[in-house]
Write a structure and sequence with these properties.
Blueprint lengths: L5 H5 L17 H13 L7 E9 L3 H5 L10 E8 L2 E8 L4 E7 L9 H4 L3 H5 L2 H9 L8 E7 L13 E8 L14 E6 L4 E7 L37 E3 L2 E4 L2 E8 L3 E11 L2 E17 L11 E2 L1 H5 L19 E8 L5 E13 L4 E7 L2 E6 L2 E10 L2 E9 L5 E9 L3 E3 L17 E5 L2 E4 L1 E11 L5 E13 L8 E9 L16 E11 L5 E7 L13 H5 L7 E5 L21 H4 L9 E13 L9 E13 L20
Antiparallel strand pairs: 1-2, 2-3, 3-4, 5-6, 6-7, 7-8, 9-10, 10-11, 11-12, 12-13, 13-14, 13-25, 15-16, 16-19, 17-18, 19-20, 20-21, 21-32, 22-24, 23-24, 25-31, 26-27, 26-28, 26-31, 28-29, 29-32, 30-31
The structure holds copper (II) ion (CU).
C-alpha cells in the first residue's frame, strides 16, 4: 500500500480561478470572460455553437522574460460554428475585448458531438434508409444507432460548400456498444448543418456478425499462483508542484491541459550545478493521421486526422486510478468548452507518478564485484480516446537528462463485416488483402497510425541549430588489419529541406539540436538528441488527397523555424484542408534554420495489420522515442553520484 500523499488531497488546481503564469491553462473564470465578452460584443447568436476555446499561446519572448508576480496578457482563440459558417475570434481576456472576429470562408470547424451523434433521427427517418434496413430484415429501428464522421479530406464536391459527414448505422441489439456491429454496405452522405441526408449508397448486404464483443462482461480469471505485489512510497512522492511548476530530481517543467493537444509541456529545464538550463520551450503531440486501406463503400472515406477533427469534445479521456496510474498519483483536471460556450469540467485528464523501472542507471562488474546505481522515472501520463481507439501517452523523465516519449495504442479496432465466416485456406491466399479475420465474419481492416510530436527545443536558449552526425563508410586502402571502418560526419542543416529526415539503416545518423553559442569544457556545442524508435512512414501516394493533409507522415523528422502560427502538423482546420496548411506545405519555403529559434517534429507511426489477438479489444501496444543530452553535461556522466539505494530521497 502506498500512503496517500498530501498532493492527492489537494489535487492540482488546473481549474483555479486566476492563472499564476502566462502558460497556465485557461481557468473557469477566463472561459466565462471569453463567453461574456463575445456575448456583449453581440458575436453570439441563438444558433451559434462553440467548437473550441483555447489559450492563445503568449508571445514566447514575453514568457521567457516573465518574472513571478508580474502582470501578463491572456488571450483566447475561439472557433464558432453558425450553420455552415465557421468563425475565428481572438479575445483579450484581461481587457475583455474582442481583438478579432472573422468568418473563414471554405473552412470547416472541427466536428461537434451534436453533429457526430445528432444525425441519428434524420438518418433513420429517411425513407431510403428505412428501405435499405428493411431489405436487411431490420424493422425495429430503436436498436439501430447512426452516426456521422468527418471526411478528413475533400473527396466529394459537396464538401467544398457544405458541412458534410459520412454516416453509417449499427445494430446494437443484445450488446453494450456498437463497435463490431456496423451495417456493412450502407453509407450515407449527410449535411450536418441542415441535417439532410443527401445521398444513400447501398452496395452490398452482409449480415451483422453475432460474435461476442462485450469485453466488459468477461468474467475475471485469476492466473494460477499469482501472488500479491505491492509498491510502497511511504514518505510520499519526491516530486513537488509549486505554482504550477513540477520539480523532480533536477528536472523542472510546467504542464497544461489543452482541449486539442492534450498535455502540453512547457519550460522543460534541468538544474545543472544549481543553474536551470533550458532544454524544451514546449513539447506536445501535434496531430494524428489514421488512414484505412480498403477501397470499398464505407471504407474509402475512413481517414482520420484525430486531434484537429474531433477536438471540440476534448482530446483526453479520464484516467482511472489503479488502471491507468497508481491510485496515489497526482491528478490533473482540465476544462473544455460545451457547445453552448460554457466551460466543461473534466477530471483526471493527466496523472503524475514516480516508478521504479527495476534497472540500473549504470552498472559494471569488475574483479567479481558489481557496482552501480539504481534509477527511477517520473511519468506524466494521459490517455486520448478518439472514437474506437485509445492512446496512452507518456512523458517519462529519467535522472540522466533523458525523456522517453511513448504512445500505447489500445481500444477497439475498426472491423468490416464479411459474407465469409473465416479466411480462405492458406494456400488460396495469394491476392492483395485489405485486412485479417479477427472473429467470425469480422475483418480488421488494414490501417496506419501516425502521431506528429512538436518539440520546440531551446537547448541553453532559443537560438539553436540542427546538426546531424552521419555515419559513413571509409575504405582503408593500406591498413594491414582492416579494409573498412565508419566515420562520423557532422553537418549543420542550413534550410528546412536539409532537415527532412527518414530512418535508413544503411545511412544512419544522429539527430541533434545544438546551441552553437554554448560550448563546454570539451569545446563541443551543448546539444540534445532525438533518438527514433520503431516507427513507420506513410506508403500512400503523395498526390492522394488524404496524404496531402497528413503529409507529415511521409517523413520521420522535420525541422522548421519557430512560427507561432505553426502548431498543428496537418494544419489548423484539417477537415477542409487540401494540404495547403501543415508541415508538407510550410517546409516548401525552405526557410533558414541555422542559429535561430527552431522546432523539431517527430513522426511516430506504425502500420497495423490486425490479428485475432486484437479482438474484441486490442492489447496495449507501445511505441516510443527518446530525447537525451549529448555534450550537454561536459563534466561527464551526470548520475555518478546517484544514491546507491533506490529508497534514498534526494
Ligand atoms: Cu490500429
Amino acid at each position: 500500500m502506498r500512503l496517500l500523499p498530501l498532493l492527492l488531497i489537494i489535487g492540482v488546481e488546473v481549474c483555479a480561478q486566476s492563472p499564476t503564469h502566462p502558460l497556465d491553462s485557461l481557468t473557469k473564470t477566463e472561459y466565462w470572460t471569453v463567453y461574456d465578452t463575445l456575448q456583449q460584443a453581440s458575436r453570439i447568436t441563438p444558433d451559434t455553437l462553440f467548437a473550441s476555446i483555447l489559450l492563445h499561446p503568449p508571445a514566447k519572448a514575453s514568457v521567457l522574460s516573465y518574472h513571478s508576480g508580474q502582470p501578463f496578457a491572456r488571450e483566447a482563440d475561439v472557433v464558432l460554428l453558425r450553420g455552415e459558417k465557421t468563425f475565428a475570434a481572438r479575445v483579450d481576456i484581461a481587457g475583455k475585448k474582442v481583438v478579432s472576429f472573422e468568418e473563414l470562408p471554405g473552412v470547416q470547424a472541427p466536428i461537434l458531438g451534436s453533429e457526430l451523434f445528432g444525425e441519428d433521427e434524420a438518418i433513420k427517418s429517411d425513407p431510403r434508409v428505412v428501405e435499405a434496413l428493411k431489405k436487411r430484415g431490420i424493422t425495429d429501428l430503436g436498436t439501430i444507432s447512426c452516426i456521422v464522421l468527418p471526411g478528413a479530406y475533400q473527396s466529394i464536391p459537396e464538401q467544398a460548400t457544405q458541412r458534410m459527414g459520412f454516416g453509417s448505422c449499427a445494430e446494437r441489439h443484445g450488446v453494450y456498444h456498437s463497435w463490431g456491429r456496423t451495417i456493412e454496405g450502407l453509407t450515407l452522405q449527410v449535411n450536418m448543418a441542415t441535417r439532410k441526408v443527401l445521398k444513400v449508397v447501398d452496395t452490398e448486404m452482409v449480415p451483422v456478425p453475432t460474435g461476442n464483443i462485450d469485453y466488459e462482461g468477461i468474467p475475471e480469471n485469476p492466473r494460477p499462483h499469482t501472488t500479491p505485489i505491492s509498491i510502497s512510497q511511504p514518505a510520499g512522492p519526491s516530486y513537488k508542484i509549486e505554482n504550477g511548476e513540477i520539480s523532480w530530481q533536477n528536472w523542472l517543467f510546467r504542464v497544461r491541459i489543452d482541449a486539442r493537444l492534450g498535455t502540453i509541456l512547457n519550460l522543460v529545464r534541468f538544474v545543472d550545478h544549481g543553474q536551470p538550463r533550458s532544454i524544451l520551450y514546449e513539447a506536445s503531440v501535434s496531430e494524428l493521421f489514421v488512414p484505412y486501406m480498403d477501397p470499398s463503400n464505407g471504407w474509402n472515406n475512413r481517414v482520420f486526422v484525430d486531434a484537429g477533427e474531433f477536438f471540440a469534445t476534448g482530446f483526453l479521456a479520464p484516467l482511472r486510478p489503479g488502471l491507468d496510474c497508481p491510485a496515489d498519483a497526482t491528478w490533473f483536471d482540465g476544462l473544455t468548452v460545451n457547445e453552448n460556450g460554457s466551460p466543461k469540467f473534466n477530471s483526471n485528464q493527466a496523472c503524475l507518478f514516480e516508478r521504479d523501472p527495476e534497472s540500473a542507471a549504470w552498472r559494471h562488474t569488475e574483479d567479481g564485484e558489481t557496482y552501480g546505481r539504481p534509477t527511477r522515472e517520473l511519468v506524466l501520463r494521459s490517455a486520448a480516446t478518439i472514437g474506437n481507439y485509445d492512446y496512452i501517452m507518456d512523458w517519462r523523465f529519467d535522472p540522466v537528462g533523458g525523456i522517453e516519449v511513448a504512445v500505447g495504442a489500445t481500444g477497439v479496432i475498426e472491423t468490416k463485416h464479411m459474407l465469409a465466416e473465416k479466411a480462405p485456406d492458406h494456400e488460396d491466399r495469394g491476392g492483395p488483402e485489405y485486412g485479417q479475420f479477427v472473429g467470425p465474419h469480422t475483418m480488421g481492416v488494414n490501417h496506419d497510425h501516425f502521431f506528429s510530436f512538436r518539440l520546440d527545443f531551446d537547448v541553453d536558449g532559443p537560438n539553436n541549430s540542427f546538426m546531424t552526425h552521419r555515419m559513413v563508410l571509409q575504405h582503408l586502402a593500406n591498413d594491414p588489419m582492416r579494409k573498412s571502418i565508419w566515420v562520423a560526419q557532422p553537418s549543420v542543416a542550413a534550410n528546412e529541406k536539409d532537415a527532412i529526415l527518414d530512418i535508413q539503416l544503411d545511412k544512419p545518423s544522429m539527430w541533434m539540436f545544438m546551441n552553437p553559442s554554448v560550448k563546454g569544457a570539451l569545446n563541443y556545442p551543448s546539444a540534445y538528441e532525438v533518438m527514433p524508435g520503431a516507427t513507420a512512414k506513410s506508403l500512400l501516394s503523395p498526390d492522394d488527397p488524404p496524404q496531402k493533409v497528413g503529409a507529415f507522415s511521409e517523413h520521420q523528422f522535420w525541422v522548421t523555424p519557430y512560427n507561432e502560427n505553426e502548431r498543428y502538423a496537418a494544419g489548423t482546420y484539417p477537415i477542409s484542408s487540401k494540404g495547403t496548411d501543415g508541415l508538407g506545405a510550410w517546409t516548401q519555403a525552405n526557410r533558414p534554420i541555422v542559429n535561430t529559434d527552431i522546432v523539431g517534429w517527430y513522426t511516430l507511426g506504425f502500420h497495423h495489420i490486425t490479428r485475432a489477438e486484437d479482438w474484441p479489444i486490442m492489447p496495449t501496444m507501445w511505441h516510443s522515442f527518446y530525447i537525451r543530452p549529448v555534450h550537454f553535461f561536459q563534466g561527464g556522466n551526470p548520475v555518478l553520484d546517484l544514491p546507491k539505494s533506490l529508497s534514498a530521497r534526494p
